[in-house]
Amino acid sequence: MPWVGLGVFQVEEGQELVDAIRSAVRQGYRSIDTAAIYGNETSVGEGIRQALAENNLTRDQLFITSKVWTADMGYEATIAAYETSLGKLGLDYLDLYLIHWPVEGKYKDTWRAMEELYKDGRVKAIGVSNFQTQHLRDLMDSAELKPVINQVEFHPRLTQKELLAYTREKGIQLEAWSPLMQGQLLQNETLAQIAERHEKSVAQVILRWDLQHGVVTIPKSTKPVRIAQNGDLFDFSLSQEEMDAIDALNENRRVGPDPDNFDF
Fold first, then answer.
1. How many whole angstroms separate alpha carbon 83 and alpha carbon 110?
2. Taking the chain, what is the end-to-end CA distance rounded to the nearest angstrom?
3. What would you report as the CA-atom Rg of the chain, rounded to the nearest whole angstrom?
4. Domains, the chain, ranges and CATH?
5. Burial group, residue 43, by CB count within 10 angstroms (0-12, 13-18, 19+)
6. CA-CA distance, 175 to 194, in Å (whole number)?
7. Which residues are annotated as a binding site?
8. Which of this chain's residues are annotated to bind substrate (predicted)?
9. What is the full DSSP assignment across 170-229?
10. Where are the alpha helices (DSSP H) in the chain?
11. What digits encode the pLDDT tens for the residues 215-248?
12. Is residue 44 classed exposed, middle or buried when 0-12, 13-18 and 19+ CB atoms within 10 A define those classes?
């Protein structure tokens, strides 16, 4: 899985999304992350098809992720939801399929369906999203296969240190959604000073911080300049002092729902 991908949360179906994917692939991105609930899988699929043709790439050179929504959890419903996502995307398989949220009483049956999809070769890898340590422990008590990914809200105001340590211990890759805290950190003075030192943007500093923590990151943008900047992370590194300063911004503050207390 590429370390940096394009997120498409809150991007509506339409030409803007198609063009964003085309731009991202043209600029070297090879990972696209969507979900059934985003309501944009059709445009994501169209963007993928156009990007493959324009860049002379084959399907196996891209890494495509989608997720099963809470309303479609359970064994049979998950199988059907997977087929629906594939149909909208116009793909024969996904590289990664995730349980979107840990709905109590449903995620184990959902995981069993995902294990079957994996065993049947319909999906290359399976994982979870928004699972806390207790959810992971509970799931793995009865699972045949371990989740390869846990995609969670992760940014300098929510560093998730205990969860990061646990997933490292268990060999589960942590992945960050909302890595830029929906833009709320872009004016932060500490981050701005570090960015100025490296002649980079604040967004690039945050995303580099992700990578140096060993966390996959999927920033969202539809603007070609921002997409290019967000992927340009490999020609500088943060010192340990800078990493510690960013870690110290943690307030355990979320912009999304709390995985321990949600009602959808």
1. 14
2. 29
3. 18
4. 6-182+215-222 (3.20.20.100)
5. buried
6. 23
7. 100
8. 100
9. HT-EEEEESTTGGGTTTT-HHHHHHHHHHT--HHHHHHHHHHHTT-EE--B---HHHHHH
10. 15-26, 41-54, 75-89, 107-119, 133-142, 161-170, 189-198, 202-212, 224-231, 240-247
11. 999 999 999 999 999 999 999 999 999 999 999 9
12. buried
pLDDT tens by residue, 41-92: 999 999 999 999 999 999 999 999 999 999 999 999 999 999 999 999 999 9
Rounded to the nearest integer, the mean pLDDT of the chain is 98
Amino acid identity for residue 241 in this structure? E
pLDDT at residue 19 in the model? 98
In one letter, which amino acid is 71?
Answer: A
Burial code (b: 16+ CB inside 10 Å, e: under 16) for 67-105 equals: bbbbebbbbebbbebbeebbebbebebbbbbbbbbbbee
Residue of 29, 38, 82, 107 marked active site? 38
What is the structure's pLDDT at 205? 98
Annotation marks residue 97 as catalytic:
no
Tell the residue number behind the tokens 């806390």, with chain if given. 132
**4 - beta bridge partners?**
217
pTM of the model: 0.97
- What tens digit of pLDDT does each residue of 105-150 get? 999 999 999 999 999 999 999 999 999 999 999 999 999 999 999 9
Residue 20, token pair as written in the block: 């964003």
Going by the annotation, the residues of the binding site for substrate are: 100
| CA–CA gap between residue 178 and residue 191 (Å, rounded) | 17
For the record, the structure tokens of 101 come out as 């949220």
